[in-house]
Amino acid sequence: MPVVIHMRNVLNLFVLLISLTPVIAQQDQDDPIPIPKTDRAYNAWASCPPILVKRFMDSGLCADYLISFDTINPFFLQGDFDGDGRPDYIVRVVQRKRGSGFEDLALLSSGGVRRLSKDIGGKYPGPSWCVIFKNETILKSLFEHGNRKPPKLLGDAIMVMKPEETSSILFWNGKRFDIYWKGD
After folding, report:
1. pTM above the 0.90 mark?
2. Domain assignments of the chain as residue spans, ordered by start
3. Cα 143 to Cα 99: distance, rounded to the nearest angstrom
4. Is residue 7 within a helix (H) or strand (E), and if so which, with residue range?
5. CA–CA dist 35, 25 (Å, integer)
6. Tens digit of pLDDT for each residue in 87-137?
7. In the chain, which end has fewer C-beta atoms inside a 10 angstrom radius, N or C?
């Protein structure tokens, strides 16, 4: 049976290798770029779309944060979260400082990077998540204070959940990310 190599696969591998070149070159300088130390983390890193890797590296976020491969699977989500019609990625990141334990979500879009905790004013529930597509209707929550109406989505949203405890929807409101609590 002949082996067929698609040009797209070759191109994706090339982009990944090019974007990892600075990673390999800087490995010995106090580990400024997140080189995976385990097979599991290496496989997770290798499964990232090349554009996600490029955006993470170009954003400068890698100086203070690592992509958190071990806390959730999938460790990134793809969608049009800011409503600009172009694909975006949300990744879970953790601060490099040992012992800080602070996790955040980072939007890696064509327009730059955003840490979602800055927009929503703190932490979000976790550790589970999924994409809510733009065309889906958000039902009114019994737990949202002040009789707030459900958001009309301008882009895809993220449902973040802590099973048996709470859940909320993180969505783009046109200026920043906002949070709509769904349940306790």
Report:
1. no
2. 7-183
3. 33
4. helix 7-25
5. 11
6. 999 888 888 776 566 677 888 888 888 888 777 776 666 778 889 999 998
7. N
